[in-house]
Design a protein that fits this description.
Blueprint lengths: L1 E7 L4 H9 L8 E7 L4 E7 L12 E2 L6 E8 L2 H10 L10 H12 L9 E9 L4 E6 L8 E5 L2 E5 L2 H4 L11 H10 L12 E3 L4 E6 L4 E6 L16 H18 L7 E4 L4 H10 L9 E7 L7 H11 L2 E7 L1 H5 L2 H6 L10 H12 L4 E3 L4 H5 L3 H15 L2 H11 L11 H11 L7 H5 L5 H8 L5 H4 L1 H9 L5 H27 L4 E3 L5 H9 L6 E2 L2 E2 L1 H7 L5 H4 L10 H4 L17 H12 L6 H11 L11
Length: 623
């Protein structure tokens, strides 16, 4: 787990040093640089040493100095790939470095390498013989990769903050991208905050021809549901056992580490399943588990984690915090995001990561379970939404929506009034837009008011519409699963976990996103994921007997903090710095409505607060 950066084109070693050191938090264990001003190739690496501590330094070259790589991530099937490559005549220098596997794998398979990898990764390979840079990102985009192409300058980095340290980077905040941010609560790939910058989408590679300076990009993998009706004829116990075994193997792969390793534990089904399966592969007392809790009971889940750790017999640590103490970290956490993120759970995720990093360097978490197995509330809203949409006339809907705005405002997490307003807001739009608008900071009409311009919902939500329309499945549950796995998972959840953990120099691994587990989930009909209102149906079946019934049937709570209440008093003065042409008077009115308790504006105001850390920002270049 590391940070990578570099460029091809004009620049100096000093520029590379500045870019690389912007990523120190991602790799505190060392720095590696390659700078060839004659060839105009510059590669930088910050290392968080996990595997082959002595033999895994980067940039790494093949023994004949004909290929070089900088790499961020972990390849979980590197041992199998190494064995195959050795059989084909490749000679390895390192003992068990997964980085070296990428070099020999590229030499053997070229652009076909990424599709063979089971892991989380972003890497760049320099091929001087063919005058080429090759970059790839893992299937779901767990590891970040930003890039920009300005005439004869190509820049890349794990974070925008490093990209912007090059004096040749130019471009302010892109207003169209900011509109998408307020429409989703995150910035969907391939978009990035600054004009001229991009994210390489998950499951994609790109190739830069260093002679012609042309860029070629291609998807090598795309999540698609391919439900197999024959699975409905199989015994559920057999399917549950298959899922349990696949997940168990995924956990075992992710337990390989040359440094201390632990487990996030919330007491929910996903993290508890990971821990219970890990206990198959190591003595329970050797497993380190971590949880944070809050002194305020309504936001505290630590008792469930404590109970499960005691049952398994893990070495459990927890940290109990006050919500007011957590609140003081908001400016620091948001200030270190190189792109705004509208998900307030980044705060407790960072607190957990920071606490965990005091004891271990790697942690396993439960990310991906909700997206693959239908764990979110919107899946439950689909059926009543379809009935409502079919029976409710437009004029009555408008009246109900207006009435919902007058409901007494509650600051509680997922309160009834909050859910009612979200539900009706989504149903004001065509079905393909229900999922994004149910979770949106603002509706399209409000974004038009904020930016003083007409907004085309089809352009605003082009990414969500593309997923919906290109889907090969027809059922709304399946189409919603594809929305969450294509957009929400990579650009919200995985981005949140990456930034929150890497701020603390902690690597987080996600067994649910293992290639084999995902392939199994792709084949499952939706009736085995959501059945009669039971979310994660087959996953719960798979964990029966392995986890207590109380954990399996526990209602999903989420990693919440009381932002609705916080934003009534903090920050003391609403932040209103100019931001890409937005109407500050309109924003000020939303702050006032929220603070007077007239309307619940928590999602927009948190998103605005996060974006304010980029207001007025200019490329730092030579600073």
């Amino acid at each position: 787990m590391c940070g990578i950066t570099g460029f091809a084109g004009p620049g100096t070693r000093t520029d590379l040093e500045r870019m690389t050191r912007a990523l120190t938090h991602r790799g505190p264990d060392g720095e590696g640089l390659f700078a060839d001003e004659a060839q105009r190739i510059f590669l930088g690496h910050r290392r968080l040493a996990i595997l082959d501590i002595d033999g895994g330094k980067q940039p790494m070259w093949t023994a004949d100095r004909r290929l070089c790589v900088v790499f961020n991530g972990e390849i979980y099937n590197h041992a199998e790939l190494r064995a195959t490559l050795i059989q084909r005549g490749h000679r390895f220098v390192s003992h068990h470095s997964d980085t070296e596997t990428l070099l020999h794998g590229y030499r053997e398979w070229g652009t076909g390498l990424p599709e063979r990898l089971n892991g989380m990764f972003a890497f760049v390979i320099f091929d001087p013989d063919n005058r080429r840079l090759f970059a790839a990102r893992d299937r779901f985009g767990k590891k970040p990769f930003y890039y920009a192409l300005h005439q004869d300058l190509f820049l890349f980095a794990s974070e925008l903050s490093a990209l912007r340290r090059h004096p040749g980077f130019s471009g302010g905040i892109d207003p169209k991208v900011l509109q998408k941010y307020f429409a989703y609560g995150f910035i969907p790939a391939p978009h990035a905050l600054y004009q001229g910058s991009h994210k390489l989408p998950g499951g994609s590679w790109l190739e830069l021809d260093l002679t012609r300076f042309t860029l070629r990009q291609q998807r090598y993998w795309r999540f698609r549901l391919t439900p197999d009706p024959a699975l409905l004829e199989r015994r559920e116990e057999s399917l549950a056992e298959e899922l349990r075994d696949l997940l168990s193997r995924a956990v075992k792969r992710r337990m390989e580490s040359d440094v201390p390793l632990g487990f996030f534990l919330s007491g929910g089904i996903d993290s508890s399943a990971i821990l219970a399966l890990a206990a198959r592969h190591a003595p329970p007392a050797s497993l380190n588990t971590f949880a944070i809790g809050f002194q305020e009971p309504s936001f505290d889940e630590s008792a469930y984690a404590r109970q499960e750790a005691r049952r398994i017999g893990s070495n459990h640590r927890e940290q109990i915090l006050t919500l007011d103490g957590a609140k003081t970290l908001i400016p620091a956490v948001l200030g270190r995001l190189d792109e705004p993120l509208g998900d307030p759970s980044i705060l407790p995720t960072h607190l957990l990561s920071r606490f965990t990093r005091q004891h271990v360097t790697v942690a396993l978490g439960g990310d991906g379970g909700d997206e693959l197995f239908a764990g979110y509330d919107p899946f439950l809203a689909l059926r009543p939404g379809l009935l409502y949409h079919r029976l409710m006339p437009d004029f009555l809907h408008r009246g109900l929506k207006s009435l919902s705005a007058r409901l007494p405002v509650s600051g509680r997490n997922m309160s009834l009034d909050f859910k009612a307003r979200r539900f009706l807001a989504g149903l004001s739009h065509p079905m393909p837009l229900w999922n994004p608008t149910w979770m949106a900071p603002l509706e399209p009409a409000e974004i038009g008011e904020l930016f003083h311009q007409p907004i085309d919902p089809e352009e605003l939500y082009a990414e969500a519409l593309e997923v919906w329309r290109d889907s090969e499945v027809t059922h709304p549950v399946d189409k919603s699963l594809e929305y969450f796995t294509h957009l929400y998972l990579p650009d919200d959840i995985l981005t949140k976990v990456d930034r929150a953990s890497m701020m603390a120099s902690l690597e987080v691994r996600a067994p649910f996103l293992d290639n084999e587990v995902v392939a199994f989930a792709q084949r499952l009909p939706h009736a085995l994921k959501l059945r009669r209102g039971v979310r994660k149906y087959l996953l719960k079946k798979a964990m029966t007997g392995l986890l207590p019934e109380g954990i399996i049937q526990r209602r999903k709570k989420g990693f919440g903090v009381p932002i609705a209440d916080w934003l009534k008093t903090d920050p003391p003065h609403p932040p209103l710095r100019p931001l890409a042409g937005t109407d500050l008077a309109w924003v000020a009115q939303r702050w006032q409505e929220h603070r007077e308790g007239r309307r619940d504006q928590r999602l927009f105001l948190w998103s605005w607060l996060s974006a304010q850390h980029h207001a007025g920002s200019t490329p730092p270049g030579g600073s």
